[in-house]
């Protein structure tokens, strides 16, 4: 039997393809939105995985530096290091700063750590040029995406820092590029006040400021020790909040990703709904344009099932072409986005199933029109 859908589409092929590609752009944005969510998950885990600490000791009754403000004394690391089960512990800071650039400042997160300590947050696999920090002062390792190069000078506060290393694909949980400075420099920048502030505080009777603070103490445990048991011991004796690596990941997921996931999911759902409505309207319009021909087919005895099959085939073909063009579109533009976009095959297959279901549902409006078509209209026309 002649394929009626093929014959019908061939009469308006250009219009059909343009329409499919237009819907495909919407589907491409759906894939991008899925990729944005996947990218947020990857970004949220980078710093925690690079540090790879078993325990995070933070200010009491806080969720830690990735969720809210946390300040503890640096010397806490010494008393943590002698607790049974702890192999070694280090102090660490996190601070959002602006790196000066000629055109505009770049927002980054500065990670402060002891260059001579036992825990180095710089993953060697991400260090593509230069070296890690080798001094206590005035060195900085930056992400290559900042645009700085080896041996460039960067002014932070009133000090000049030399770029000694470049990393790639290093971002904070919020998507900001990471830079690394020594713990002493980080404490000076984060916890010390300007001269005017110091003078003002003295006039108010406030003496000095404590630059021996850090945002967290991180610890690596000895083999064979239970992480939860050691964490409970530290909570009881040091009166601090203690989180395992898994708990920190969960906090990030709940406080940062969960709300964004809901927003992205809602936006994605709206785009899929809009795409379904557009496909339905196109099929309805195409059906209206050939109502006389459909009436003639019914008049000469062609059953409804054959005509309905034509409508469903056209709708499915429209959806499949839209899905293919959407995939192509998303892969062409995803690298242009400022934050990480991760396109996964599983997401594409999931969207394909949704598109097929949406296409079948969209065809019902055309099918309904076919069923209600009057064969007598062919004679009256």
Give your account of this protein's structure.
This protein is α+β, with helices and mostly antiparallel strands and about 375 residues long. It folds into two domains: about 5-45 and about 255-380, no CATH class; about 60-240, no CATH class. Helices cover about 50% and strands about 20% of the residues. It contains eleven helices and twelve strands. The protein has helices at about 5-10, 15-50, 75-80, 185-190, 195-205, 225-240, 245-290, 290-300, 305-335, 345-370, 375-380; strands spanning about 55-60, 70-75, 85-100, 105-115, 125-130, 140-145, 155, 160-165, 175-180, 215, 215-220, 240-245. The strands form two sheets. Strands 1, 3, 4, 5, 6, 7, 8, 9, 11 and 12 form a ten-stranded mixed beta sheet that branches. Helix 7 (about 245-290) packs across helix 9 (about 305-335) and helix 7 (about 245-290) packs parallel to helix 10. It is elongated, with a radius of gyration of 31 Å. This is ABC transporter, permease protein. One of its GO terms (cellular component) is plasma membrane. Its main location: membrane. It is a multi-pass membrane protein. Keywords: Cell membrane, Membrane, Transmembrane, Transmembrane helix, Transport.
């Amino acid at each position: 039997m002649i394929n009626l859908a093929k014959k019908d589409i061939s009469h308006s092929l250009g219009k059909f393809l343009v329409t499919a590609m237009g819907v495909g752009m919407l589907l491409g944005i759906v894939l991008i939105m899925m990729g944005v969510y996947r990218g947020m998950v990857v970004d949220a885990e980078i710093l925690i995985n690079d540090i790879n600490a078993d325990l995070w000791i933070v200010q009491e009754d806080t969720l830690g530096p990735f969720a809210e403000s946390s300040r503890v004394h640096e010397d806490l690391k010494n008393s943590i290091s002698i607790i049974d089960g702890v192999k070694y512990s280090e102090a660490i800071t996190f601070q959002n700063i602006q790196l000066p650039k000629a055109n505009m400042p770049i927002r980054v997160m500065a990670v402060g750590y002891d260059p001579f300590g036992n825990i180095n947050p710089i993953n060697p696999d991400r260090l593509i040029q230069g070296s890690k920090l080798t001094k206590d002062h005035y060195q900085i390792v930056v992400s290559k995406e900042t645009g700085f190069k080896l041996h460039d000078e960067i002014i932070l506060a009133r000090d000049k820092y030399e770029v000694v290393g470049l990393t790639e694909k290093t971002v904070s949980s919020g998507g900001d590029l990471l830079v690394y400075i020594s713990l002493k420099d980080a404490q000076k920048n984060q916890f010390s006040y300007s001269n005017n502030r110091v003078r003002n505080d003295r006039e108010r009777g406030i003496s000095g400021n404590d630059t021996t603070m850090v945002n967290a103490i991180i610890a690596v445990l000895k083999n064979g020790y239970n992480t939860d048991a050691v964490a409970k011991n530290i909570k009881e004796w040091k009166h601090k909040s203690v989180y395992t690596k898994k708990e920190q990941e969960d906090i990030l997921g709940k406080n940062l990703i969960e709300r964004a996931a809901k927003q992205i999911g809602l936006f994605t759902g709206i785009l899929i709904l809009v795409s379904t409505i557009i496909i339905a309207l196109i099929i309805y319009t195409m059906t209206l344009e050939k109502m006389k021909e459909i009436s003639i087919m019914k008049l000469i005895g062609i059953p409804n099932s054959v005509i309905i099959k034509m409508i469903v085939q056209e709708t499915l073909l429209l959806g499949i072409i839209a899905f293919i063009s959407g995939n192509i579109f998303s892969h062409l533009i995803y690298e242009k986005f400022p934050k990480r976009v991760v396109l996964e095959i599983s997401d594409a297959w999931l969207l394909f199933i949704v598109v097929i279901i949406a296409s079948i549902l969209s065809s019902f409006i055309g099918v309904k029109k076919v069923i209600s078509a009057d064969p007598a209209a062919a004679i009256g026309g």
